Amino acid sequence: MIEVINPANEAVIRQLESRTAEDADAGVARAKAAFPAWKRMPPPERTRVLRHLAEKIAAEHEPLAKLESLNTGKPLACARAEIGMAIETFRYYAGACERLLGSTIPVAGGIDITFHEPLGVVALIVPWNFPFTIASWKLAPALAAGNTVVLKPAELTPLTALEFERIATAAGLPEGVINVVAGAGSVVGRRLVEHPDVAKVAFTGSTAVGREIMRRAAETIKRVTLELGGKSANVIFEDADIEAAAAAAPEAVFDNAGQDCCARSRVLVQKSVFERFMAAMEPAVKAIRVGDPMAADTVMGPLISADHRRKVAAFVPADAPVAYRGTAPAGPGYWFAPTVLAPVSNHDRAARDEIFGPVVCVIPFADEAEAVRLANETIYGLSGSIWTRDGARALRMARAIEAGVLSVNSNSSVRVPTPFGGMKQSGFGRELGPHALEHYTDIKNVFVATGES
Ligand code: NAD
C-alpha cells in the first residue's frame, strides 16, 4: 500500500494500492496498442483533442491546486500558479501538433525530405516537488508529437497524476494514450526503464537515480532525457542593486521550502559588499511566513516527509555557521525554519551537495574570475543568477557559468515557451519551448531520386 500523507499535519490523506511490475507491463501494453491510431490521427484533430484536454484541466484548476497543496504541503497560492503553468503547457503544445515541420534538402540526384516521427511508448517518471507541473512538461510535448505515454508519479505525491488520468478519460482521450501507474520507483519505475516496448524514458529526479536509469536504459538502447539535481549559484557583484538582490535571494532558494532543483542554494557575494548584503537579507529571511499551506499569507510550507527532514537537518549540525534563521511551527508536520549559513567555503559539504531544503550557503568572492571559478566548481549545472548593473559583465558571466538556465537581475527559471534543462551532472535534454519536441521524435530522412544529376 501507498500511504499518502499531508506533510503539514502528518495525517493520512489516502491509502492506495501500490502498483506492481505487472501493472507497469499492462500500462505499456495499453500504450503500445493505442500508439498506431494516435500517431496516425491527423494533426489538426490531435490539436483539437489536446486543446479540449487543456480546457478540462482548466475547469478543475482550483480542486487540483487544493489537492496538490494538501499532498505536497506547498502554499495554496503556489499550487495555483503551478497548475496554471501546467494548463498553459498543454495549451502551448496543443498548437505544436501542426508545427512539426521537416525540411527538404537539395542533394545530388534528387531530394531529401525529413519527417519528425514519434518514438512510440514513452515512460515519464517524475518527482514529488512539483508533481503535476513537471508531469505536464513531459506529457504535453510527448502527446503532441504523437507518442503514447505511461506516467509514473512519485510514491509520496501520486494524487494529481491520478486525477489527471480521470480528467483525460472524461475528456475523451482515446483509450490507452495516457496511462498512470502509481508505484515504487524500484518496482514500477525500474520495470518501465527495462521494458523492451518502451522507446524512451523522460526522467526528472535525483542525479543518483538518473545515473541508474541511464545504465539500465542502455540494455535496450532507449532514448533518455534526464532532468536532475542542482547546486545553483546566485552571484552578486558589488555594482548590483544590493537591496534588490538581498530581497530576492531568499525566495530564490526557499521557494517550495528549498525543494526546488533550481534553488540558488549558493549565494556568492563580492567581499566588498558581503556585510551589507547579509544585513539587507536578514529581514527578508525573518519575514518569511512558514505555516499552514492553506492560509493566504503563508510563503513556505513544510518539507515533504520526516525522512527528508532528517536528511536536510544533517546539513545543519550543532557547529554549523548559522548566521540567522527564520521561524517554523513546532509540529505536527515536517517543518524546518529557513536557515542561512555564512560565511561558508565552497568545499564544505553544505555548499557541495544538493540539500533540497531551506538551507542556503553564502560564500564570499574577490573578483569576477573567482566568481566564475566558484560557480562552476560543482558537478551540477542547472540554473543560476547574476546580479550586476554592468551589462557586459552580465553577458560575460552568463557565457562563463556552466548551467543550462540563467537569469540576470532576476531569479526566474521556467517559462513555457523557453528551453529548460541542465548541463554537466544536472542532466541533458531540454523541456518546454519548441526544443522539448525534438526529444520526443526521431528524424526520418527519405531520399527521392529525381533523375537529375
Ligand atoms: P528520486 O530520484 O528519488 O525519484 C524521482 C522519481 O524516480 C520517482 O518517481 C521515483 O519513484 C522514481 N525512481 C526511484 N528509483 C527509481 C529507479 N530505480 N528506476 C526508475 N525510477 C525510479 O527524486 P525525488 O526525491 O523524487 O526528487 C528530488 C530530486 O529531483 C532532486 O535531486 C531534484 O533536484 C530533482 N529534480 C530535478 C528537476 C529538474 O528539472 N532538473 C526538477 C525537479 C526535481
Tell me the domain tally. Answer: 2
The CATH superfamily of the largest domain bears the name Aldehyde Dehydrogenase, Chain A, domain 1
In CATH's first tier, which class of the largest domain applies? Alpha Beta
* End-to-end CA span: 67 Å
Q: How many strand units?
A: 18
Strand order of the largest sheet: 12-13-14-11-10-15-16
Mean pLDDT: 97
Low-confidence stretches: none
Beta-strand residue percentage:
15-25%
Number of helices: 15
**What is the annotated CATH architecture of the largest domain?**
3-Layer(aba) Sandwich
The gross shape turns out to be globular
Query: What name does the CATH topology of the largest domain carry?
Result: Aldehyde Dehydrogenase, Chain A, domain 1
Keywords:
Aldehyde Dehydrogenase, Chain A, domain 1; binds nicotinamide-adenine-dinucleotide; 453 residues; seven-stranded mixed sheet; Aldehyde Dehydrogenase, Chain A, domain 2
